[in-house]
Every structure is written in C-alpha cells, then in structure tokens.
Amino acid sequence: MVPKLLDLAMNPRTTGHMRTWTFLALQEITDEHLPADALAWSRWYREHGSEKMAEFERLDWWQVRGDE
After folding, report:
1. What is the rounded distance in angstroms from the CA atom of residue 65 to the CA atom of residue 47?
2. What is the DSSP letter of 63?
C-alpha cells in the first residue's frame, strides 16, 4: 500500500487536494509524522519500510495499533 501511495504522491498529474489526502493516509498507515514531501516519505520507506511491515505482520488482522 505504501509504495502505491508514494507513486501517487510523486505523480505530477496528482492534484494538490489528492496529494494532501495521500500524505494523510501515509501518516495514518505508518504512524509517522513526516512533512508532506514525497522525497522525505520515499527516504523513510527505504530506511524503515521493512521494519514497519514486520510490525504489521506480527499483529492480528483485526488489531488496530494503539488498542493494546
């Protein structure tokens, strides 16, 4: 999901409104609070994406992070 959102954020044809929603979705999905900057998010994903995916895989499908 995150790579597809990054593609959307980097696409020059994506509207500003859609780009804003894309960054909000990235923040909600990853629980990270980076600026609305596609390059910053790409860098974060390269450095931390596999860690975050491993965290998600450890959770039950119904569990929402923070509801422990």
Report:
1. 21
2. P
- Residue 5 and residue 11: Cα distance in Å, rounded? 10
| 8 Å CB contact between 2 and 49 | yes
pLDDT tens digits, residue range 4-35? Answer: 999 999 999 999 999 999 999 999 989 999 99
Q: Does pTM surpass 0.90?
A: no
Whether 35 contacts 42, CB under 8 Å: no
HSE, side-chain direction, 13 A CA sphere, residue 56: 11
Q: Can you give the C-alpha Rg of the chain in angstroms?
A: 13
